[in-house]
Please model this.
Amino acid sequence: MSDVRFASPGIGFDCYYIAGISGDSAALSAHAPTLNALIAVPFTIAKQIVVDRLAFNVSVVGGAGAKAHAGIYAADTVTGYPTSLLVDGGEVDTTLSTGSKIAVVNATLAPGLYWFALAAWGSSTPMLCIDGASGATHSLGWRSTFASQQAALVAVQTYSPTLPAVYPAGATDATNPSTSFVPAIGIRIASIS
Model:
């Protein structure tokens, strides 16, 4: 899992930390995430941080009605399953332009497990996704055959201008990020304490 144990603000100007990526061998590639689904990627934090930006990147503008929405969910301390919405990045019209879609947020996150989430609706919008073949961390483990990795949870999510206050029950795991297209969702850290 991605974590910010060794991260220090000021190492790089405007650095973002992406859930589901650890190390320097992972790559991002343009794919369209599943529509009408809330995709959540785990992210661990070892020290208290203040987050001031939440971002994802649109590679190709979406068709008519395409929208996306990013947020951060807390995790159940026993099961680890996503629970309540902590940070809402707002709805983004993905038909307007390509590039980073950055929400200004202000959230203090204590050490622990969190879930960065993104929902896409309307029509397919290619965005930067974690390339599972490139060394991305498969943070939810592997199947017993060791043939397929798990990188995210996917819950059905019909269109709403807001993210659900509680992550939907019954999510399934996304198998092999190179074919399930787990969106790259990142935060910028304003401070670590």
